[in-house]
Structures are given as C-alpha cells and as structure tokens.
Amino acid sequence: MKINDNCVGCGQCASFCKKGAIDVKGKARATDACIDCGICVLYCPVKAIEVLV
C-alpha cells in the first residue's frame, strides 16, 4: 500500500482498518501489520491511498 502526499491526516482510513495497521500522526502511514487488503482505499476522502500490485 502507498499513501501519497494528498493525505490530510484525517484518520478515516485508520478507523476502518481491521488490522489496525495505519498509524496517523500528522499524515497516515502503513505499519508492518498491513496486509494490503485495500479496505482503506475505499474510505479515503482525498484518494491518497493506492494498493500496489
């Protein structure tokens, strides 16, 4: 998963992450717990997240 510079740090992605794998301190970042499921992509209001395949 990649979180680009469009991230505004709102935390919506983290609140929907079932693994708790997104850390939001300022801007969001994926932790090692991320399994690239992509659920966060659906809830990012500024389209700052993309799943790398």
From TrEMBL:
Alphabetized Pfam families for the sequence: Fer4_21 (PF14697)
Coiled coil: none
4Fe-4S ferredoxin-type domain segment(s): 1-27, 31-53
PROSITE patterns for this protein: 4FE4S_FER_1, 4FE4S_FER_2
Gene3D superfamilies: 3.30.70.20
GO MF annotation list: oxidoreductase activity
Protein name, per record: Ferredoxin
Source organism of the structure: Methanosarcina barkeri 3
Taxonomic classification: Archaea, Methanobacteriati, Methanobacteriota, Stenosarchaea group, Methanomicrobia
